[in-house]
Amino acid sequence: MTTLADPLPGGRPGEVERAAALAAELTGRGVHGIVLAYVDTAGVGRVKTVPTAKLASAAAWGVGMSPVFDTFLANDSIVTTDVLGSPDGDLRLYPDLDQLAVLSAQSGWAWAPVDRITQEGEQHPGCSRTFLRRTVVDAQRRLGLTFRAGIEIEWALGLATAPDGAFVPATTGPAYGAIRQVELSDYGAELLSALAAQGVDVDQFHPEYAAGQFELSVGALDPVAAADRSVLVRQTVRAVSQRHGLRASFTPAVFAQGVGNGGHIHLSAWRDGANLHTGGDRRYGMTADAESFAAGVLAHLPALTAVTAPSPASYFRLQPSQWAGVFTAWGRETREAAVRVVTGTAGQRAQAANLEVKPVDLAANPYLALGCLITAGLDGLASSTALPEETTGDPAHLGATEVTARGVRRLPASLAESVGEFRKDERLRAALGPVLADAVIAVRQGEIAAVAELDDEQVAAVYRWKY
After folding, report:
1. What is the pTM of this model?
2. Which of helix, strand or coil describes residue 173?
3. Which of 39, 209, 272, 300 is 20 to 30 A off residue 10, Cα-Cα?
4. Pairing relation of β-strands 202-207 and 213-218?
């Protein structure tokens, strides 16, 4: 299935001319280079860059990149599948001009996400951005559904002068405390200014729970744009941090013990301009379709963790009673449930109602995570899956009888368990296709093997500055 947004050799109609005009404008603004960005299967951001004068050429013919990066690990070693991981072949990276942004915190640079196609002009089956767009377009064509999504960004801010690989918090004020905001006031102001200049709609920015930790929430967009924005925000956070002598870590767990960095996903389904998560006759105003969508997400969550929590370090964060959502439970504004039903404040519910999926961190490729979550929800909707009884409070405190009655189960406690669940989930693997599904499995197994001989703190250190 192709869409009007898919790149074509030679460029889509008018695209090359548009890129040439845009390059001239950017040059006039002092932009010398374009960052072409994508996220690999391991969740690591990878880039190529071109001079601004080559933007039109990139829009026409793409920029070369090996398919081998689909099976890179976070430590830059390479695993293989039956079709990926060899030194053979070439892909073309095509910038999405609609999402191009001048980087306010990186003087002389602009940024654009890319799609990857083959030299023959076919969709690359390992391109996660194409997978997400295909999923969204198919839902609209078949079911008349659209989606809005937002990804929360949490990071730990450390001193750049710390010994190599170590983490020393940039501020040690209380959780959510005014001290942190004051101590890093200039940093925060520059970050907000940079994001505003790049057209990023910030909803909130505040100190978080762990030492040196901050969180930033952005406005909801269509899922592909939401994933793009997540990548752009992290690029900006890193750049602003560096300008202030600081270093940002988006790892799931800076240390093996304690609260980690999440990347919670907010997602809502819409039809004919109406939000399905409000105005209905089911619990908390949900429509029947919204309930089934939430039930589908819950049903697939054990396998989804191989995509939403893809690092060995992810499972230091996914602990009970730490608001990480490690049980297949849902509840209205229940922050220990894996799926939190957000109704929004009275008067805003038509726009604000959504599902928050909590067992997600920023080691996840956001395109894979959103595409798989939507696939899971649509599976529940297609089968009219019943949403089980709501769980309030902490699911860890439920008795055995209640757990059975509500269908509540503990999510995988290790990456190996997640891969096992993913292997059994035929629906998710079919949606990804064999090339991408096999890459997910191979990369996860590679990460497991890479740290098999390390203790927990060593594992946390290995991934501390990878994401």
Report:
1. 0.97
2. coil
3. 39
4. antiparallel
